[in-house]
Amino acid sequence: MAAISSGYTVHTGDDPRALPEFSALKEEMSKLSHPARPDVDWARVEQLCLTLFRLNGVELQSAAWYTLARAQRAGLAGIDEGLALIDGLVSHQWSQFWPQPTHVRVEIFAWLVVRLQQVLRTCVFSYIDLPLIYRTEKRLAHLSEVLQRLELKHVSKLDNLRVQFHNSARRLESLAQEKGVVSLSPASVSSIEDTTILVSAEQSQPQLMYVAQETMSSVQPQIKVVRALTSSRWKVGHGFVAGVVLCALTVTGIGWVKGMRQAPPLAQALQVTTQPLPRTLLPAQLAELRHPDNAVLLNQLQEETLAASRAQLASLDALPVLWRLSMGRSY
């Protein structure tokens, strides 16, 4: 999967036709209908789509092309990943994303269904694919329900794709029963909620997680694209934590050396009166601390920080009511 900066948020897409990336993407996808049938560079299609998501936002045409590219490169998992993105757009941002004409959107859906059906005919499913098939079927059912409310269910042809997934699941269930395997049920697969979270099943490449959530304010809903952690990035995280531990040990050693040279009690009391007040973290530091890569470090520091904060609050609570007034007069 294409490498992009982790943790960025993509807004709802406008008309991308003026961007060179969209022109290059359209030219690459036109190979599908070219008489000579040249090979489509699906890795390039995926990269161009991700670039458009970052520069222009997510719109239906690029999302459909991205879904097909992921289907070609990752099979069933790629289909589910792309449909999760489209489901977020249609469910939460129907009135906002490009293209606006309904008949153009219907044509994009119909084109995508035909292409995904062609991909599915080349796939050979096994019993271990059942959970993902159930999840994709549920996602298509949810998408069809949304389009049903817009009176577009039948013209979009998405239900035909859902039926194809349903039939594939039935065949796998029948084979499992013949072999005496305990079959799964659709109820065992978690349902699609208002907030759709998807982690790609590919383990050989970096993963993306799409989070589409609806806001309650007048602010435009957004689709957040977050890079999921991979094993190689975990190694980087371990190195970061090791560096923090080393720094902590160094600071502790310096403090111990300073403790050996302690000043007289009266000098210490005088120094305490000149200590600066605590400072809050800068916005950039808060954002870095909340990054998924620093989750382990945050969990390690959370309890210690909370304990220190409680101690400070307890000491303030124990002060006399007129303490501030008396301290002000003393100076």
Automatic annotation (TrEMBL):
Q: Does the keyword Coiled coil apply?
A: yes
The organism sits in which domain of life?
A: Bacteria
Coiled-coil regions in this chain? Answer: 133-178
Entry annotated with the keyword Coiled coil: yes
Q: Which InterPro entries match?
A: ImpA_N
Could you tell me the keywords of this UniProt record? Coiled coil
Where in this chain does the record put each ImpA N-terminal domain?
12-113
Its recorded name reads ImpA N-terminal domain-containing protein
